Recover the amino acids of this structure.
């Protein structure tokens, strides 16, 4: 696990494909970790210097498009507070997740949610339930 | 020799997502469900990042829905492995989420809403066959609201 913990008062976001959103609502899949990975990739919103969450969602969408991701208008950007996410995971599965800044050369705001696994479906569902969903454009 | 198949048996004989949808339509399943499945089936054609529907998972989902028509219309999606995932909210603000594994079990999670008397969000989850899962989440089922 690398990087510094992101402050609990800050927010993270993650792009959710059309198959994992319905009418603007997020499915648990939006926060499901892959079997062979130790973290879920997200972006640190406050690192971008944008206070408005909806604007940040659009900014991150553009950033991801620039990295070659197919960010669709019919997809959604999930946004959750760091402290809210940590509480949700603790309550749902008694696990302490960590949300850490893990900058990449092509994405300085990249971060990761660490501390849960593919088998922690309750955590994925709890994170989806607590998240807000914003348009990508 | 005439062979007679159960409904689950007929579903298991389907060879494609379109076949499953056709069977659901013949059985008068809520057309919103078949429309959503068709939409999900088409996503992978346009976008290689989207998963293809796992046929066995879809078959299990179809059998589940056909046998439980009293359930309100759910939110329907796909996991990254192509498994059918559904979710409902309840009138109390809880959320019930599940996905259908190809071999028949259902992975589920019920996330209870917080309240003044229960400020911490609690959960119930597991991996069970359909009937066992429905027994486990019975307190939620009566409060499910349509998507």
């Amino acid at each position: 696990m690398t990087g510094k913990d992101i402050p609990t008062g800050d927010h993270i976001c993650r792009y959710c494909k059309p198959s994992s959103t319905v009418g603007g609502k997020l499915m648990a899949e939006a926060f499901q970790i892959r079997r062979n990975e130790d973290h879920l990739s997200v972006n640190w919103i406050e690192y971008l210097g944008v206070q408005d969450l909806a604007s940040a969602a659009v900014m991150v969408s553009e950033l991801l498009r620039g990295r070659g991701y197919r960010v669709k208008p019919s997809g959604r950007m999930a946004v959750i507070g760091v402290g809210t996410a940590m509480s949700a995971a603790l309550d749902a599965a008694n696990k302490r997740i960590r949300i850490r800044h893990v900058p990449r050369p092509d994405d300085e705001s990249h971060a990761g949610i660490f501390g849960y696994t593919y088998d922690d479906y309750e955590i994925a569902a709890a994170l989806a339930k607590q998240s807000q969903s914003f348009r990508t454009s | 020799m005439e062979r007679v198949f159960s409904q689950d048996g007929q579903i298991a004989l389907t060879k494609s997502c379109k076949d499953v949808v056709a069977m659901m339509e013949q059985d008068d399943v809520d057309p919103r469900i078949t429309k959503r499945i068709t939409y999900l089936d088409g996503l992978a054609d346009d976008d290689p990042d989207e998963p293809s529907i796992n046929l066995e998972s879809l078959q299990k989902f179809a059998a589940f829905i056909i046998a439980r028509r009293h359930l309100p219309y759910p939110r329907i999606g796909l996991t990254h492995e192509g498994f059918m995932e559904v979710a409902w909210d309840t009138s109390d603000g809880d959320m019930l989420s599940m996905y259908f594994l190809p071999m028949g079990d259902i992975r589920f999670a019920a996330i209870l809403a917080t309240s003044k008397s229960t400020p911490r969000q609690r959960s119930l989850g597991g991996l069970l066959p359909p009937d066992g899962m429905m027994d486990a989440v019975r307190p939620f089922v009566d409060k499910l609201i349509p998507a």
